[in-house]
Write a structure and sequence with these properties.
heterodimer; A: 305 residues; mainly alpha; 13 helices; 0% strand; B: 334 residues; 11 helices; 76% helix
C-alpha cells in the first residue's frame, strides 16, 4: 500500500490535489455531468432570464387570458392573462432560493451538531438524543402546523413575501439536518482516533482550531453529498407545501404554487400543469444525479477505477 | 433480546411524552383562536362562554395533563369496555373543536380509506421493488439495470403531486379510463361495484407505489450486490448448487435482512406522505382530516393525530431494530 502511494507520487510530474482527483472522477459520471449541465442551465435561466424576457410576471392582460403557446407567450398565459414563461422564471427564483438557503441552514445546523457531538464526549449523549427526537417527529404534519399557525404573525412582522420566505426556509432547514448530523458525527468519531489528530493534540492545539483546521476539512465530502441531496429535498418540500395551499401567497409564484393553481383548470387546460411539474421534477432529478456523482467521486474506494 | 426490548419500550415512554409536549406547546404558542371561524354576529360574551366550554381558558399545564389523561387513560378504557361488551363509562373523551365529536371516533372513521389506498400502495410497491432490485443486481450494468436505475431515479425525484396530477390528466381527462376523484361512500356489493372500486383505486395506488418502489428497489439492489460478491456465494456455486437456488435462496434471504428493516422504517411515512396523495385524489383519509383540522384551528384533533404519527414512527423504529436482531444472528443486543 505504502509502495503504491509512493510510486504514484514519483510518477506524477505535477502535484495533484484531492479535489482535482474528485473532479476527474466526477467527469466520468455521465448522469452527474448531464445533471450539472442542466442545473447550471436552470440557474442561469432563472436568475439571468428575467433580464432577457422582460414581461412582468404580475402584469395582468385580461384580453390575452388562457392562451396557448405563441411567439408572444411561448408557454401561453394563465386565466388572468399573465405570461406563464415570466411566471415560471420568477417562480424558479423563489423555489431555488428557498431550496438553497434551506439546505445551507440544515447543513450548518447538521454539521455543527455532528461535529460537536462527535468531538466532545460530554455533548454526545444529549445531542444524539435530540437528533433521535427530531427523527421521531412526523415532519410533514408538523411543517403544516407550524406554517399554518405562524404565517400571520410573520406576515405582519416582515411583510407577506419575506415573512413567508423566512418561515419556510427556517422550518425546512430546522427539520432536515438530522441525517447530516449523524453522518458527520460518525466520521468525526473515526477521525478523532487518527494519528494526525492525536499528534496535533499533543502539541497543544485548542479544540476550536482543531475542529477548524483538521476535522472540518476531512468531513467535507459527506457534507457535500448531503448538501446536494438537501437541495432536492428542500425544493420538493417547498413545492409540496405550496401544493397544499400553505406556501407562498398566490400572487407570488413558485413552481409548487403554479402547479397548485393550474390543477384548478385541469379539465379545460391540462397542459398547464406540465411546465411547473416538469421544472420541479427535472431540477430535482438533476440535483439527485449530481449528488450521486459526488458520492462516487468522493468515495476513495471507487475513485480511480 | 428480551431485556433489550423492555429497555427500548421503557425509553420510548419519555420520548413520546416529550414529543407530545413539543406538539402541545407548539400549538399553544400559536396565536390561533378556535372561535375565529364562527359567525361575527356571535356576541363577545357568548364567544367567551364557547371558549370556556372548550377548556381554552385553563392554564397550559392543566390542559396538557388533561389531554394526557383523556388520551392515555380514558380512551383505552373505552376501547377495552367496548371489546368486552360492557356499558361505556361516562368519561371525558378528547373532543374535536370542529365537530364536537370524539377525535378517536373521527380517526376510526377515516382509517380504512387511508389503510386501503396507502397500505395497498406500499404492498404493491414492495412487491414490484424486490424482483427489480434482485434482477438488476444480478445483471449489474445490463440494460435492465440501467433502465431500472433511471426509472427509480425518476421515481423518487418526481414528486407525487406531479405524477398524481399527470396521471389524472392522462388517464381521466384524456383517456377517461379512471375517475379522478375517489368516492369513499362507494360500497362494494356485487361484481360491478367491485370493479368500480378497483378502478378508482388504481391511480392513487400506482402513483404512491411508484414512489415507494423506487426507493426500496435501490436498497434491494445495493444489498443484493453486497451479497453476490461474498465468499459463501462462490462456495455455493463451486459445490454445484443450481444458479436459481444460489440467487433465490442464498442471496435473497441474506440480502433481505437490511431491506426488511428499511421497509419497516418506511411504514410510518406512509401515513405522513399520504397527506399529499389524499389531497390530489380527494380521498378523505387521515391526511385530509389533519389538513381540515389544521385549517380550522382544531387543536385536539391536530394534537392527537400528530401524536399518533409520532408514536407510529417510534414504534416502527423499535420493530425495525428488533427485526434486525431476529433476522441476523450476528447482531445481538445483550
Amino acid at each position: 500500500m505504502t509502495e503504491a502511494v509512493h510510486s504514484t507520487l514519483v510518477d506524477k510530474t505535477e502535484p495533484r490535489s484531492q479535489w482535482l482527483d474528485v473532479w476527474d472522477q466526477f467527469r466520468h459520471h455521465r448522469g452527474a455531468m448531464l445533471g450539472m449541465a442542466f442545473f447550471v442551465f436552470i440557474l442561469l435561466a432563472v436568475f439571468a432570464g428575467p433580464y432577457l424576457w422582460t414581461i412582468d410576471p404580475q402584469y395582468i392582460d385580461i384580453r390575452a387570458r388562457s392562451q396557448g403557446p405563441s411567439w408572444g407567450h411561448p408557454m401561453g398565459t394563465d386565466q388572468l392573462g399573465r405570461d406563464t414563461l415570466a411566471r415560471m422564471l420568477a417562480g424558479g427564483q423563489v423555489s431555488l432560493a428557498v431550496g438553497i438557503s434551506a439546505m445551507l441552514l440544515a447543513l450548518v445546523v447538521g454539521a455543527l451538531i455532528g461535529v460537536l457531538s462527535g468531538y466532545f464526549r460530554l455533548l454526545d449523549g444529549p445531542l444524539m438524543r435530540l437528533t433521535d427526537l427530531f427523527l421521531a417527529l412526523p415532519l410533514l404534519p408538523l411543517l403544516l402546523v407550524i406554517i399554518m399557525l405562524f404565517r400571520d404573525t410573520l406576515r405582519s412582522a416582515f411583510g407577506p413575501e419575506t415573512g413567508i420566505f423566512f418561515l419556510i426556509v427556517f422550518v425546512i432547514g430546522i427539520t432536515s439536518w438530522m441525517q447530516t448530523a449523524r453522518i458527520v458525527r460518525g466520521d468525526v468519531l473515526a477521525l478523532k482516533e487518527r494519528e494526525f489528530v492525536i499528534a496535533s493534540k499533543s502539541i497543544g492545539t485548542s479544540p476550536f482550531r482543531m475542529i477548524l483546521r483538521h476535522i472540518l476539512p476531512n468531513v467535507l465530502s459527506p457534507i457535500t453529498v448531503s448538501a446536494t441531496l438537501g437541495i432536492a429535498n428542500a425544493i420538493i418540500t417547498e413545492s409540496a407545501l405550496s401544493f397544499l395551499g400553505l406556501g407562498f401567497p398566490s400572487d407570488f409564484p413558485t413552481w409548487g404554487r403554479l402547479l397548485y393553481d393550474s390543477t384548478d383548470y385541469l379539465q379545460q387546460y391540462p397542459e398547464r400543469v406540465i411546465w411547473p411539474g416538469l421544472a420541479i421534477s427535472l431540477t430535482v432529478l438533476s440535483v439527485n444525479y449530481i449528488g450521486d456523482g459526488f458520492r462516487d467521486a468522493l468515495d476513495p474506494r471507487i475513485r480511480g477505477r | 433480546m428480551f431485556h433489550y426490548t423492555i429497555r427500548r419500550l421503557l425509553l420510548a415512554i419519555p420520548t413520546l411524552l416529550v414529543i407530545s409536549l413539543i406538539i402541545f406547546l407548539l400549538l399553544d404558542l400559536a396565536p390561533s383562536d378556535p372561535t375565529a371561524n364562527l359567525p361575527l354576529t356571535i356576541p363577545p360574551e357568548v364567544r367567551e362562554k364557547i371558549r370556556e366550554s372548550l377548556g381554552f381558558n385553563e392554564p397550559v399545564h392543566i390542559r396538557f395533563l388533561l389531554w394526557l389523561k383523556q388520551f392515555f387513560i380514558n380512551e383505552p378504557l373505552n376501547v377495552i369496555e367496548s371489546w368486552l361488551g360492557l356499558e361505556q363509562g361516562d368519561r371525558l373523551r378528547v373532543l374535536s373543536w370542529q365537530t364536537r365529536s370524539p377525535v378517536v371516533d373521527l380517526i376510526v372513521q377515516r382509517l380504512p380509506q387511508t389503510l386501503w389506498v396507502v397500505g395497498m400502495s406500499y404492498v404493491v410497491g414492495v412487491l414490484i421493488a424486490l424482483p427489480i432490485g434482485i434482477y438488476s443486481a444480478y445483471r449489474q450494468y445490463s440494460w435492465f439495470d440501467q433502465i431500472g436505475t433511471l426509472v427509480s431515479m425518476i421515481g423518487f425525484s418526481v414528486p407525487t403531486f406531479f405524477t398524481g396530477v399527470l396521471a389524472i390528466v392522462v388517464f381521466s381527462v384524456w383517456l377517461g379510463w379512471f375517475p379522478s376523484i375517489y368516492d369513499t361512500t362507494h360500497k362494494v356489493t356485487d361484481w360491478d361495484s367491485f370493479l368500480f372500486q378497483v378502478r378508482q383505486m388504481v391511480m392513487p395506488v400506482c402513483v404512491l407505489a411508484l414512489f415507494n418502489a423506487a426507493q426500496i428497489s435501490r436498497f434491494m439492489r445495493a444489498s443484493a450486490l453486497d451479497n453476490l460478491n461474498q465468499d459463501y456465494v462462490r462456495t455455493a456455486r463451486a459445490k454445484g448448487v443450481r444458479e436459481r437456488s444460489v440467487v433465490l435462496i442464498h442471496v435473497l434471504r441474506n440480502s433481505l435482512i437490511p431491506v426488511v428493516t428499511v421497509i419497516a422504517l418506511g411504514v410510518p411515512q406512509i401515513f405522513g406522505g399520504a397527506i399529499i396523495t389524499e389531497q390530489i385524489f380527494k380521498v378523505n383519509g387521515l391526511g385530509q382530516l389533519l389538513i381540515i383540522a389544521i385549517q380550522g384551528g382544531d387543536v385536539p384533533t391536530v394534537q392527537t393525530l400528530t401524536f399518533i404519527f409520532a408514536a407510529l414512527i417510534v414504534f416502527f423504529n423499535l420493530i425495525a431494530d428488533m427485526l434486525y436482531g431476529l433476522l441476523d444472528p450476528r447482531i445481538r443486543y445483550d
